[in-house]
Amino acid sequence: MNPLIKVNGLNYERKAIKTKQLEFGEDLYKAIETYVLPEKKSGDWLAISEKVVSVCQNNVRHISTVKAGFLAKTIVKFVKKYPDDIGFSRAEKMQVAVETSGQARMVVAIILGVLGKIVGIKGIFWMVAGKRVSEIDGFNPAAMYPYTEYCVLPPKNPEQICQEIEKRFDLPAVVIDGNNINIKIISMSQKVPADKKLARLVLLDNPMGQDDEMTPFILVRRQ
């Protein structure tokens, strides 16, 4: 990962913060205090993987609790496959999405999603499915254990978490949904010196990585 990126003519440094493997139910704020604050400089803002927020909230499901049904198995036949990301191509992961969104809503999402593709409009399926199901992660055979066996659900109250980090540590924060396909800004605290569009562009190459880097925090500073 190149620590520097130029966006709109300005250079930004993205400092990846290495941690131990954070456990389910671990204190997120303690982790930030331990690993991030020693590296913090004035003017920095913090990007946090939504996955680590959910892990600290213990907001996960083990694969043993999921049984893929007919609808989930049908949907995965039509989702886009990526060579370097499992996406939603695994039926168990899609089953969690079905249970989160609801079967009726998912059926409508399929129909409208197919119609959207016919006329060249992408993303309708996830928009209709709603309930942040696109943020569901995990059940990836290529991932670091235990995420081979666990599904990580969208974090609860991400806006409040960002604001609490800013309040406690005088460190503006954003929570991101990042992978090798795309970056999405989930939430931001009030004093982040960037809007969502700029923050996304600064992090667009996914500087946290997608393997076993164990860098769930990125300090961003403008050069």
What does this protein structure show overall?
The chain is an alpha+beta fold. The protein folds into 2 domains: 4-59 and 155-222, 2-Layer Sandwich (60s Ribosomal Protein L30, Chain: A); 60-151, no CATH class. The protein is 33% helix and 19% strand. The protein is built from 8 helices and 9 strands. The protein has helices spanning 28-36, 50-56, 70-75, 91-101, 103-118, 124-129, 158-169, 196-202, and strands spanning 4-7, 10-17, 45-49, 60-62, 137-138, 150-152, 173-178, 183-188, 217-222. A 6-stranded mixed sheet has the order 1-2-9-3-7-8, sandwiched between helices. The model has no long low-confidence stretch (mean pLDDT 92).
Give me some keywords for this one.
33% helix; 8 helices; alpha+beta; 60s Ribosomal Protein L30, Chain: A; 9 strands; 223 residues; 2 domains; 6-stranded mixed beta sheet; 3-stranded antiparallel beta sheet
